[in-house]
Amino acid sequence: MDRQELEAWLRLSLTPGIGNDGARRLLAAFGLPPLIFAQSPAAWRQLLSPAQASALAQPPDNLAAQLQATLDWLDAAEDGVPRRIVTLGDPAYPAALLTIEDPPCLLYLMGRLHPPNGAAHTASTPTPSAPTAIDVVADGWPTRALAVVGSRNPTPQGATNARQFARALAAQGVCVVSGLALGIDGAAHEGALEGAPPPAQGPATIAVVGTGIDRVYPRRHRELAHRIVRQGLILSEYPLGTPPLPPNFPRRNRLISGLSQGTLVVEAALQSGSLITARLASEQGKEVFAIPGSIHSPQSRGCHALIRQGAKLVETAQDVLEELRWPWPTGAIETEAAGAATAAPEGQHDPYPELLRALGADPVSLDALQARTGLDTATLQARLLELELAGQLGRLPGGLFQRLGRG
Question: At which of 13, 40, 66 does a domain end?
Fold first, then answer.
């Protein structure tokens, strides 16, 4: 794409009031943006409202600055990390997004989309003796992708579940798609990066962000974002410099579900953006999966509501692969049941097994633990701290404790 064509695409996308729908009508009628702007306002008014046609006649005030910023961004690839803009109609545009409602006209991409040396990996049935590469099609987009989403404030067990599921799925050649948010999203990206067998033939994980791609939000995920672009991909539909505006995040969820063949909700309250992603996935004809949790945890109620509405209850990553009919190596996939606490590895012993049994699987208060164990407060708190440091215990709001499965 040369400078003139990029300027025309940016002008079309930045013009107030046009939106993706108006832009698609113009593209269908006149062709590429340079041809659109060669038309008369009268021709535009056949497809747009008078106000839209009037807005299209005047270049946006920030067009020149946005064009230069975009050119600079494309030229400023750091450490060999590829950067690209893909437009509607480009052969590299993800086919999965062409079928969703309101596909974006422009996508900003940063990271590893295509396999090394540009050669596409042909999907094949993995064997137990060889790690599974991320399957990609000819245009470089994963053929097996799963959205993993959930609460920004998960329980410790919820974060562990997200990481374990993503790690196991990536190890089986599944690209994990999420939104780079705090909580479940971040844990899912981390797990996918850990689980993908090197060298991956496509992105181990895709982060769909609600800001300009030149911004990392939240800031504490800056280091995670840097790792994603080396082993995966960051994607945005928003112009460079776009700040973290609240309406953008629910809107980007259609891309998270659209890029995936299914959506797994790990933890979610009843009023959660993750349920928006699940609803969009269902409307797109995709499978929705949910991990059950404690009946006492508010973060489990969204998942339980989804299950009542027909989402598939899953306890292991293998449940997901079986439902989607994706092959995996012979033998069980090493993921724990949701919320399950595992025994110590061979040669090690769980400290205080009686206390671990007293913890059970649900969140529990200090008073309840004292009643169950008969331990005095000082002894009980010391043992709880030791279990927490060993990664077998998590602290929840309200002074509650929860036993964890090992991550």
Answer: 66
Asked if residues 145 and 260 have their Cβ atoms less than 8 Å apart, the reply is yes
pTM, full prediction: 0.83
**Of 46, 66, 86, at which residue does a domain stop?**
66
Same domain, 59 and 190: no
Domain with 234 in it: what CATH number?
A: 3.40.50.450
Same domain membership, residue 365 and residue 311: no
Do 198 and 108 belong to one domain?
yes
Structural domains of the chain, count:
3
Give the range of the structural domain holding residue 394, as residue numbers without chain letter: 353-403
Per-residue pLDDT tens for 41-77?
Answer: 999 999 999 999 999 999 999 999 999 999 999 998 7
